[in-house]
Amino acid sequence: MAHVPLSPIGQPSDSVLDTATLDKNRAELAEREEVLAERRHTVEAGWGEKYVGRVHQKGKLTTRERLELLVDEDSSLFEVGTFVNWGRAFGKLASPGAGVVTTFAKVEGRWCVVIANDNTVASGSWWPRSPEKIERAQEMALRLRLPVVYLVDCSGLYLPEQSQSFPGRTGAGHIFKKNSELSANGVPQIAGVFGDCIAGGGYMPIISDRVFMTEQAYMVIAGAALIKGAKSMHLSSLDIGGPEVHVHLSACADVRVPDDQTALIQIRAEIAKLPSSGADYYRTGADAGDPHFPHREIGGLLPADHRMTYDVMEILARLVDHSHFWEVLPDRGREMVTGVARVGGLYVGFVANRQGLVNDPEHHDELKPAGILYKEGIAKVSAFSRACNSDGIPIIWLQDISGFDIGVEAERMGLLGYGSNLIYTNSTNDVPMFTVLLRKASGAGYYAMAGLPYEPVVQLSTTITRQSVMEGRTLAIAAFNTKLDDDFEIATDDPEERAEIEAGMKATEARIEGDMDPFKAAAQMDTDEIVALSDLRPWLVALAEMAYQSTGYRRIKNPRIWSLHDIAALSAPRG
Fold first, then answer.
1. Rounded CA gap, 273 and 267, in Å?
2. Residue 71 contacts by C-beta under 8 Å, 6 or more apart in sequence?
3. What span, in angstroms and rounded, lies between the C-alpha atoms of 515 and 479?
4. What is the pTM (predicted TM-score) of this model?
5. What domains does the chain contain, in order, with CATH numbers?
6. Residue 552: left (phi > 0), alpha (psi -120 to 50), or beta?
7. What is the pLDDT of residues 216-243, one digit of tens each?
8. Which listed site, 207, 511, 521, 569, has its alpha carbon 20 to 30 Å from 259?
């Protein structure tokens, strides 16, 4: 019987850093995470109390109130796409969260993806990027085979901006294609229809396996106003497509309920009929356990300044159960950490970047900077990723990377080929992969470590994440290279020209630094969510449970027959 040799890692934080440095790191992080909390509250408020009052006057609950009643009392929401459209204005209007809430939620002990129109924002209309946000959540559900719950209260496209959300590959119609793909793969879909469901809002629930309608709800291809204009008929939308029509005549809905609260009770009852989670089975008798070192210490150990180093093993020690970890191939490609641990009692593979300097046995143990991909590290990560895929082990990628090694020697060693091998591996993996951008996510290194273009199920950023091809100063030098000498100094004696080049370089650097703001990335869907470092462990526990919930759609080997054991045996010293 193969043994999974989990070993203790980590030290007390005050043994790793002095108190002053820990306090400095915590203070810098606290300032950023206070901004995160404030902006999250702004999004959650929708268009404010005035519009909450309008919803209540109609005898309905707000979307946030519906979510509170839907989810299990002892669980938290894990929202994705919170900051889509952040900072973007449409005329004088904002669209907090693109007018829709997409979240992982536990309902009757089962993880679900919930997609809920925010009825305090333009009656739940779809804004630019609303369809993409919905489709991204549907894709997450499909990849994990999680049930989908739609809380539909949508008056269709926000028409003044329809050109940005109607056409194109990810336009609103693609939502219905995703509905179909989920259905074709046997993923349960349950819809509650709570109010205005016009055009696309009416189509959205139809492919669901169960559709509940409240007395105030209607589903119509065209609402009363449009029919009045087109056909000169005076009807209400309830007359056209209310529950009397769709439950009793068209059979486009299944159950008629009196109010929001009853609909949510019925939806919970439907979820309870589904198979329970397989997570406990795959724990193989192990109990979930907290890390030996508190996960809230991560903020003190991880400096916000990307130029400062830290020990990634100390971060792992505060993320994994009991701070126990099996490092695979520890003596090869030292710039990378690959290994297995339990998270919430479930086995998960980790790939992480080391920081600082590491020894290079190929060059007589010379020291070289980590946070960069070299030949041996790339090969190690590729082999580990393939083995995890073979063994059915989900992979969590902890990114803090500046990119690939460059130069004559790197090219001669075939880094292009090794990098392509890693990209191929990650592009064809079947196991769920989750990516966390701890700090730097730069260049092709971001791609190679399962960045968003390589379709991890979820990509999380922190408040100190920096996504870019290269740092602002480096990019400014590259952009103005023809104006610089071999020492990267401005190559002119003309004072006016020098001042113009200096100003151009500073402006370029400032623009790139602004582009690296994680809120900008989240606003344009270049990352799925920004999380506080203190929330990272709960997120990983939830994602691990989701990855193991549904049974039968992928091969999950028992630990006795892991390919990882073969890799470990072949790489161990003989004798």
1. 10
2. 77, 105, 106, 107, 114
3. 16
4. 0.92
5. 1-44+291-464+527-563 (3.90.226.10), 46-276 (3.90.226.10), 466-524 (no CATH)
6. left
7. 888 776 554 544 444 444 445 666 777 7
8. 207
